[in-house]
Amino acid sequence: MTDNNLSQEEIETLMGDMKQTDNAADLLTPEEKDALGEIGNISFGSSATALSELLGNKTEIDTPTVSATTLDQLENEFEDPYVSVKVNYIEGIIGENMLIIDMKDAAVIANLMMGGDGTDVNADSVGEMELSAVQEAMNQMMGKSATSMSMIFKKTVDISPPETQILDMRNGEAKKHIPNQEPLVRVSFRLTVGDLIDSEVMMLFKLDFAKELVEHLLNNQEEVPPQEPSQPEPTPNVKEEAKPVQNKIVNQPPTSLQGSPEVQTASFSDFAPAISEGSGKNIDLLYDIDLPVSVELGRTKRSVKEILEFSSGSIIELDRLAGEHVDILVNDTLIAKGEVVVIEENFGVRVTDILSPKDVMQKIR
Known about the structure:
Blueprint lengths: L7 H18 L4 H26 L3 E3 L3 E5 L1 H7 L4 E10 L3 E8 H11 L14 H26 L4 E2 L3 E5 L6 H4 L6 E10 L3 E10 H16 L49 H11 L10 E4 L7 H5 L17 E5 L2 E11 L2 E9 L2 H8 L1
Antiparallel strand pairs: 1-7, 2-7, 3-4, 3-5, 3-6, 4-8, 7-8, 9-10, 10-11, 11-12
Helix pairs in contact: 2-5, 2-7, 4-5
């Protein structure tokens, strides 16, 4: 371009991009956009709840907007590197989507996942450890989304573990990871996490997969059987005194045209004698069943950051004092307490206190 004038080649390129944009926008009907928006509303709502519990901050997701786009448009729009999370649907529906998050937002999520307060972070701090934390957060988030989609489509929907990486669209790297054979469907929504994050997050689907989601939704709506028309209610006698309506369901026996039905008291067989007669013999069948017995020294909780910093020689402090009795569990149920002993070269435990059957039943419940 010279003297602020576009060359013929630049004009043709610009016109081609505009034409490509118009074609992409026409690939989805308004009904398909509404259906995808409804799916996004339900699935992202549960995802926000899961993310809020993980990050310990109020998380909100606005109503998503649906549009069609192309890889060239994305490369022109995203000048800075982003974090991409690729998820494959492997059961119920087959396809993939890609979640694209701003690097600064990913750094905040990673910091919160590792026990920080989400402040004083920057995009340059996102490394391999931070990507692992973001991947776990997105795994929980998309898992909840898949559960919601299972309810929408009335069948099991499952996903594979997400793949997280830094995506730089400036150097052509996006073409290796984002499908470029056809226009893409873009579902964008505003994500807010407390006062730490307020930005747009984007999901990308292949066009055929997006249309398959719409088809699943519409088919399930069509399968709902129509309700039979209700019989007209008899006209009340205006001379009768109006009676108040009570919001109460009353179970009444069916009436007969020939008079009141005969009502009899239900009778049940007494199984007590049969049980008492065979109980001594049948209980022997249970004696050979193996049950796992374990001894628990103590427990503790640590943040993801502290766990990732574990190394050989690290000391983990438990919630039990030295010399205190250990717990004896059968099939993961606490039944007794004991003390650690040494039998020749092996550790053992001497039972010192057995819980009462009532206490054991309460723990099972």
